[in-house]
Amino acid sequence: xxxxxxxxxxxxxxxxxxxxxxxxxxxxxxxxxxxxxHASQWYIKLFCFIAFGFVGNTxxxxxxxxxxxxxxxxxxxxxxFGNIFAAFFPTGFSFQKSCHLNHHRQNRTDFEMFxxxxxxxxxxxxxxxxxxxxxxxxxxxxPVGSLWLMLAPNSLLKSxxxxxxxxxxxxxxxxxxxxxxxxxxxxxxxxxxxEVLFSLVFQISLFYILxxxxxxxxxxxxxxxxxxxxxxxxxxAYTVRDIRNGAWxxxxxxxxxxxxxxxxxxxxxxxxxxxxxxxxxKFVDFNAERPSFWSIYLRMWRGLVKISDQAPxxxxxxxESLIDSDSFQN
Length: 330
Description:
Layout: E1 5-6, E2 9-10, H1 15-38, H2 42-67, H3 75-88, H4 93-106, E3 116-117, H5 123-135, H6 141-151, H7 153-157, H8 167-170, H9 174-177, H10 186-210, H11 214-234, H12 254-259, H13 266-271, H14 293-300, E4 305-306, H15 317-323
Parallel strand pairs: 3-4
Antiparallel strand pairs: 1-2
Helix pairs in contact: 1-2, 1-11, 2-3, 2-4, 2-11, 3-10, 5-11, 6-10
């Protein structure tokens, strides 16, 4: 099989398109941050709140591409832009990559059932987590987690939030995301910490270069957090307990689909994690069930559901190889 062909489809990484989208989304993000900080009219600030929510998710979708080694076939270019995108979130690139690929390995397992609970769970903690996801508060966890890693990695990995000697808090998501991180060599953890430091310096530099203020920054990032967080589990909630097939291809407007770079085709992404956003529609069954984003999002507001379903089967080796694959040519 040729590297750029998969199941009879061309899946070549669109290097030039990705670079163009990167330049446009980064420059737009910077402009909206500046505008929100300097405009006095409330309707302009409201515009920035909404617009940065969309553009910020374009940047995040590009980060998602770099995490899957699909932004650029040049490994160095992919890594450099991955760190820039991560700095906008803000988080650390390698830390984000480790957490996200763990998500692919344990989707719909007990580590990642945020709309449901069973008898061993703390219903109170799971309820708090659900509404943090729905209201955008969940966005805080990657920046806080990455800063914690930078300042005190051992403390993070031995905390209850990482599942260390605390099942109930670990089920809030940390135990799954940080899985196997304690087994990584010290040099890799050091690299992650340096990348987080870069993101911190990057954010501080934005304040200095663009003359930002806290209010403008919060307006933009709350708009982003609300959109980002609400989607992060709507594309999985109430799906089958299957690591590879436990996701939705959600219906959204073309406008939203373009800004999110086909992120809502999430079942196709989980089935084929090595395929670029650009080619993802080729792997969507448009005749199958495709609920709207809003139908799932509003259903989640009703609260947790109790489950007794068996956990999904362990990940198979062939799928593991797709998760770890890359398209690098140099």
